[in-house]
Amino acid sequence: MDDGAQPFALECRMNLSAILPHYLLRVNATEVILANDRDDQCASSWVFRELRKTSLLVVRRGAVTRDRIPVGIRGPERSQRWAALCPPSAIQQIITPTDLLKRFETTRDSHASPACRGLGSLGVDWRWLTHSCWGPGGSVGFELATGKRTTIPRSDLDVVVYANEHLSRSDAQRLLVSTRGS
User: Fold this and answer.
1) Do residues 134 and 96 touch, judged by C-beta distance below 8 A?
2) Per-residue pLDDT tens over the stretch 44-63
3) Most CB atoms within 10 A, among 20, 27, 118, 172?
4) Number of Cβ within a 10 Å radius of residue 61
5) In which band, very low, low, confident or very high, does the pLDDT at 181 lie, cut at 50, 70 and 90?
6) Tens digits of per-residue pLDDT, 54-105?
């Protein structure tokens, strides 16, 4: 089944710089280093449970090395976030915010949260933005990746923009203005 996400190809294994913050990684959960070089016993029980349940990690900012990628594990509560490290060999699939945007465009949920409806509005308002890749991050992105409701009525919409070239001031202002109505 093609869900819009890119399978982890050999060329990505060779070019780890292609893995950017906010990407989601579907992984072999048994290979994830949960405790950031500390004793694994430091991890709360929810960390193990969530990792087994979704096997989905969020790439964090930090140095990506040939043997470790900084990642985070999302818990069911907003306050539950766990920093971890992932060896590239554990990666089974890479899901980008742009992949999630494409997935959203094919999904129509009449019970969508305000944040998801805002994403729909931005999808229309930002059609002109062809020189940059963008898509949802945060709880909206995680919801689209897992198919499980993670947004609540007061959830915000995190949008990730990867500019392939310098954004002009007028383009940046145009993006900002369009978000005010979403």
Assistant:
1) no
2) 889 889 998 999 999 999 88
3) 27
4) 9
5) low
6) 999 999 998 888 889 999 999 888 888 889 999 999 999 999 999 999 888 7
Q: Are residues 122 and 134 in the same domain?
A: yes
Query: Where are the alpha helices (H) located in the chain, listed in sequence order?
Result: 10-14, 45-54, 97-105, 114-125, 138-146, 169-179
Contact of 159 with 129, CB cutoff 8 Å:
no
Radius of gyration in angstroms for the set of CA atoms belonging to the chain, rounded to a whole number: 17
Q: What is the largest CA-CA distance in the chain?
A: 51
What distance lies between CA 54 and its chain's CA centroid? Answer: 13
Side chain identity at 33, as an amino acid letter? I
Residue 5 in contact with residue 93, Cβ under 8 Å?
Answer: yes
Sign of the Cα torsion 51, 56, 125, 174 reads: positive
- In-domain check, residue 1: no
This prediction has a pTM of 0.83
- Report yes or no: 67 and 33 within 8 Å, Cβ to Cβ: no
Residue 144's domain spans which residues? Answer: 97-179
Q: Which residues pair with 94 in a beta bridge?
A: 6, 25
Q: In what order do the strands lie in the sheet with 56-59?
A: 6-7, 91-95, 24-27, 56-59, 69-74, 81-86
What residue type is assigned to position 89 of the chain? S
Q: What is the tally of structural domains in the chain?
A: 2
The residue count for the chain:
182
Smallest CA-to-CA distance from 138 within 123, 160, 107 is with 160
